[in-house]
TrEMBL record:
GO aspect biological process, one term: base-excision repair
Physiological role: Involved in base excision repair of DNA damaged by oxidation or by mutagenic agents. Acts as a DNA glycosylase that recognizes and removes damaged bases. Has a preference for oxidized purines, such as 7,8-dihydro-8-oxoguanine (8-oxoG). Has AP (apurinic/apyrimidinic) lyase activity and introduces nicks in the DNA strand. Cleaves the DNA backbone by beta-delta elimination to generate a single-strand break at the site of the removed base with both 3'- and 5'-phosphates.
Taxonomy of the source species: Bacteria, Bacillati, Bacillota, Bacilli, Lactobacillales
Listed transmembrane segments: none
Protein name, per record: Formamidopyrimidine-DNA glycosylase
Any one Pfam family match given in the protein's UniProt record, by short name: H2TH
Length: 275
DNA sequence: CAAAGTGTTGGCTC
DNA sequence: AGAGCCAACACTTT
């Protein structure tokens, strides 16, 4: 499910619904979701107020009163819902945060890949995973010159490089395929073979495409919904992801699907050539 | 029924 | 030390 635009959409939804809410207690139904001791997790969260919500890359960060933060990664299928306590518990809801106003924040995750952990707020950007993230994909933070310099040091192919989060944060499998198509770069091009013009174009497309996807409320392929259980609409703006066998919008060539770094990868064999 | 799926991590090798 | 590769995680859908 969630790449940066989807996580940001979830963050904005939660911000509207649970800011200022107080946690009375927490129930952990599937302990492996929690990094660290689940009973410590529940105990530490009691009586905390939800002060703000941050995001870094695909990580959601809940900031509580008393210098405590919760780092939450949704991985493939994680979702948050806000429900009344009387609403029946959904299948695959694994963590329930009981709020003071008779509502519950519920974490739901079919594949149970998501993880959450508590850290002092001052350390929230220092945890493993977040610490190694590249810059946020915005004009203010993501610099084209250093992006090009970093690409030249990478021996991996460009698709794998974009997915590893270290040169720029937030791209996942869908948006990686999309920005490579927009930039006319073959996903298996070694990152170090990209020209400065390629890097600049890719840089600009990454910033523009993720911003556009946030505006659309993210991409719903199978199951993604935001905290209001609303679908996104960016799936209607996709050019190659899920378009195997369909004509390329630029040249009419049939879109191909291959596997790159264990991930399904879509591209146009005619306008994206390996260099 | 086998395979693939929106993501990261840990263990391995070089 | 650091980069790169790949299996593992758990369950549903095709």
């Amino acid at each position: 499910m969630p790449e940066l635009p989807e996580v940001e959409t979830v963050r904005r939804g939660l911000e509207k619904m649970i800011l200022g809410a107080k946690i009375e207690h927490v129930k952990v139904l599937y302990p492996k979701i929690i990094n660290g001791d689940p009973s410590d997790f529940c105990r530490l969260l009691q009586e905390r107020e939800i002060l703000s919500l941050d995001r870094r890359g695909k990580y959601l960060i809940f900031n509580f009163s008393g210098d405590l933060s919760m780092i939450s990664h949704l991985r493939m299928e994680g979702k948050y819902f806000v429900k009344k306590s009387s609403d029946p518990l959904e299948k695959h809801t694994h963590i329930v945060f009981f709020l003071h106003n008779g509502r519950q924040l519920r974490y739901n995750d079919v594949r149970k890949f998501g993880r959450m952990e508590l850290v002092p707020t001052v350390q929230r950007y220092e945890v493993a995973g977040i610490k190694k993230l590249g810059p946020e994909p915005t004009a203010a933070l993501f610099d084209a010159t250093s992006f090009f310099a970093n690409l030249r040091k990478k021996k991996k192919v460009i698709k794998t490089t974009l997915l590893d989060q270290t040169l720029v944060a937030g791209l996942g499998n869908i948006y990686a395929d999309e920005v490579l198509w927009l930039s006319r770069i073959h996903p298996e091009t070694p990152a170090c073979n990209l020209t400065e013009d390629d890097a600049k174009l890719l840089h600009d497309n990454i910033i523009a495409e993720l911003a556009k996807a946030i505006k659309a409320g993210g991409t719903t392929i199978k199951t993604y919904t935001d905290a209001f259980q609303h679908s996104g609409s960016f799936q209607f703006d996709l050019h190659v992801y899920g378009k195997k066998g369909k004509p390329c919008e630029r040249c009419g060539t049939s879109i191909e699907k291959i596997v790159v770094g264990q991930r399904g990868t879509h591209f146009c064999p005619s306008c994206q050539k390996v260099k």
